[in-house]
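Figure 3 (text version): structure tokens given as input.
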């Protein structure tokens, strides 16, 4: 899995398996960057929530 982190003001970006590593590299070049991150090849970077299953009582 790869993540891309973009500086939305300059268009600069970093790609890494760890999104935090990519973000830190980008911020080291542009300390005041406004960033946006995506997981490459997936519709979302993270899942939120859980699946709830109801088991009937016997």
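Below: residues designed for each position.
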């Amino acid at each position: 899995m790869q993540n891309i982190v973009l500086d939305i003001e300059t268009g600069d970006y970093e790609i890494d398996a760890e999104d935090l590593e990519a973000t830190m590299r980008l911020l080291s070049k542009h300390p005041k960057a406004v960033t946006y991150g995506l997981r490459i090849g997936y519709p979302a970077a993270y899942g939120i929530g859980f699946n709830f299953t109801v088991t009937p009582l016997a």
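The CA atoms of residues 22 and 28 lie 10 Å apart.
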